[in-house]
Amino acid sequence: MVKKRDSSAKERILDSAEALFSRHGYDGVTLRKIATDAEVDVALANYYFGPKKDLFDAVLLRRAEILNDLRLKELEECEERAAPNPPSVEDIVSSFLHPLLIRPETQGPGWRNYYALVAYINNSPEWGGTAMTKYFDPLVKRFIRALHRTLPDLPEADLFWCYQFLSGALVLSFAETGRIDRLSGGLCRSDDLAAAYKRMVPFFVEGLKAMERPYKKV
Fold first, then answer.
1. For the structural domain made of 1-50, what CATH number should be given?
2. How far are the Cα atoms of 11, 110, 169, 197 from residue 166, in angstroms, in the given order?
3. Labelling 101: which of 41, 90, 94, 152 has CA 20 to 30 A away?
4. Do residues 166 and 204 make contact, with C-beta atoms less than 8 angstroms apart?
5. Rounded to 10 degrees, what is the CA torsion of 37, 39, 41, 43?
6. CA-to-CA distance for 22 and 190, rounded, in angstroms?
């Protein structure tokens, strides 16, 4: 079952790999299973992407580039609006979270599979320290620098810890485990990323401000 070598086949392979990796992890998926799900011959998947590890990297990179561009654009826009002063903590946190949780171009089934995959990677000692560093750390450090300019009295170590806590909240939201649905008796839904965004921004903004308060020079 060999399909013609076109971009649609390439996208189907990426989509299938993304969905299967997000459900079963890296070790729970074979290249043959991905090819079968994408309705292509395994030789075509290998032709486009090489071994499974290279396909895994391609899956991560495809949407990481989109997300990083959107987040950087929003950060630069809020910096331009505030210039010559630094932007508010609210604007920085919003520019970090908004493209992930609200923008329509980063929603839909494919994106939810990608977010589930990011949650899996973040919680994996094998992948979390390498994959996240490779694809997201340069952008995260850019946001840390922006926050440091806005909150100059807050030690950098505290900023990195605050990012760690924010990252954990994001990962749990991406995982969509359904626990909050059961815990709240249906008041909250784990798949409601807009509701998560609405609450996550003020939660972390006030947390950052509270962290800075003891250090703030009067």
1. 1.10.10.60
2. 31, 23, 5, 12
3. 152
4. yes
5. -60
6. 17
Q: How confident is the model at residue 216 (pLDDT cuts 50, 70, 90)?
A: confident
SS3 assignment, position 188: coil
Fold of 62-215: Tetracycline Repressor; domain 2 (1.10.357)
User: Which pTM does this prediction carry?
Assistant: 0.87
How far, in Å, CA of 157 to CA of 153, rounded? 12
Location of each CATH 1.10.10.60 domain in the chain: 1-50
Mean pLDDT of the chain: 90
Residue 72 in tokens: 């950087």
Taking the C-alpha atoms of residue 63 and residue 80, their distance in angstroms, rounded to an integer, is 26
Query: Where are any strands of DSSP class E within the chain?
Result: none
Q: How far is CA 173 from the centre of its chain?
A: 10
Q: Of 161, 196, 159, 160, nearest to 175 (Cα)?
A: 196
Closest CA to 201 of 102, 97, 86, 84: 97
